[in-house]
Amino acid sequence: MSQTAHALILAPRGRDAAVAAGLLTTSGIEGRSVPDLRALVAGLSDDTSMALVTQEELATADLTDFDRWLRAQPAWSDLPIVILTHAGGGPERNPHAARLLELLGNVTFLERPFHPTTFASIVKAAVGARKRQYEARARLAELAESRERLDTALLAGNLGTWELDLLTMQLETSATTRSAFGRAGDAVFGYSELLASIHPEDREPVLAALEHTGQSGADYRVECRIVWPDGSQHWAEMHGRRLLDAEGRPSKIVGVTSDITVRKTSEQQLVAVNQSLEQRVAARTAALEEAHARAIREIEQREKTEEQLVQSQKVEAIGQLTGGVAHDFNNLLMAILGNLEVLRRHVGNDERAVRLIDSALEGARRGSSLTQRLLAFARRQELEVKRHDLVALISDLTPLMRQSVGAGIEVVVNPSPSPAPAEVDVNQIELALLNLVVNARDAMPEGGTITIEVGEAALGSEPPDLAPGSYVEIVVTDTGKGMDAQTLRRAVEPFFSTKGVGKGTGLGLSMIHGLVLQLGGALQLTSAPGEGTCARILLPCAADDNMAEAATMRDTAPTAAPAAQSRILVVDDDPLIAMSTVAMVEDLGHTAIEASSGARALEIIGSDEPIDLLLTDFSMPRMSGVELIQAARALRPHLPVILATGYAELPDDARLDVARLGKPYDERQLADQINLALSRAA
């Protein structure tokens, strides 16, 4: 196939071919003469801009092959054909010309003798039309590429697609969606099969949510139990959005489906563990109550101590399970977020693809926020601990707290006159305070007062496991409805909430509890029905040296200038995360060298291949990221290193002077660490 746009000329008699070729050259088009219709058809290709044929050559020729080629053109193509006729030979007075117009389609008749200006005008119009066809071809290719990238993102997230026509209720599903419902890729799976697959107890809520989306346009989101053809029970999550037709009427609902059976199973296991621990607590409490009847003040103290111990063990057990699940889910979110961010910048002007990707990104970021709260409860989150004055911190945060509670609730702040320095992660402490204030607001639907006090703590009723020393405290008190004893005991458990469905995650207090424990402090809650609630955060007081620094609220980390194009060795045993990280590295303009294990990475480092930076995961089989870094430094002592990990704390033997990148990270965070590491090594 020719790579140059050109016009084919079939005018073997007289000077028509020479004249036409000359005029085409004047118009900037290469004209190629052919001897007959068979040669014309053989020379046609997608790069043919137009065909110029004399009418007499078509009068007696067999047009079957020509017609077959024209009909076989791709959807974007409609080859312009200019037919040279004698005077009066156009379709208005010539039946044969009319038949040619009907048979050949995109035809323009030019009567001879013709003026060069007229010829140039017709050629310009034909070539312009062909150029627009080429542009349509390019757009179709871009759309196909965008679709392929979207399919890659859906595959990485194990997401299936579906589309429901609201007029006909016809359902179209992808193979991944059918797989989530236990169907083979080529199985018939329409709307009726979908409804039949949903567990009878969940069918009505699913239908109600679907009807609400169709009528109101609200986002569609449901979790439901499904029954596979083999009788086994699974869980599916469906998200969707309503689309309107050209007249603004509801037309379709399109969305994605994911199999969440593993997640739901983990949640059920968590509930089972919780119930088992509650039964143990109940049994132990009954035994202590029986003993209480036989023994005035020692048994009472033992009961209190043992109850605190059991509660601590209970929260610790739940925290270990929650932290493990959250860490693994972080890795999945890492792959989803990375691929979607790269894909988002390459979808062009496809508004529908942009909306779907943005929706998926928002969902993934919400999942990331949820895992951060779970890691906070489990005391495994990455903290950026620095010295801050809590008095100044709360002073700066007061306007936002007052905006958060709205009208009808008064926020009273009583700070101590002297600074209250503590070593804290300022973002996490601010989030904890906002959570406490919002909880207090929700406990006062008819209005009330929230009082916040900050200063040096007067110890005396602190928890028994609190280390000796000086502490500062933040106390948040409300005049709300309060909590009974049973609710107060469970207040810091993850997912426990007294709010209605959809009004809270049940992770606010558990996050605060995990945070203050990780900072070496404690959270104390006191409450009673009708008497409000008091939340007391105790934090170790910072050392007295450099007291002037205690008034500084935030330290801005230095940001390096964007690094030049570099060769970066990416090491991760998880193919999804490796693919996502490589895509982000290359999207930043660098060259990525991928290794799926520490052993393979060492082979590359030990070779002569140039490497500017090592980016490695921490948790890998056979050779951890720390072991890889130690071995790599023996080979290349000055090689800059970034260690990516979802763990807040590494083992004692893993203390290395390397940059840390917490998972999940986005492209901006990755770019900042790369720029900083390379600038320090320069």
TrEMBL record:
Keywords attached to this entry: Kinase, Phosphoprotein, Transferase
Pfam families, per database record: HATPase_c, HisKA, PAS_3, Response_reg
Catalysis: reaction(s): ATP + protein L-histidine = ADP + protein N-phospho-L-histidine
Domain Response regulatory: 567-678
Protein's UniProt name: histidine kinase
Domain PAC, first and last residues per copy: 220-272
Source organism: Devosia nitrariae
Record EC number: 2.7.13.3
Domain of life assignment: Bacteria
Domain Histidine kinase, residue spans: 324-543
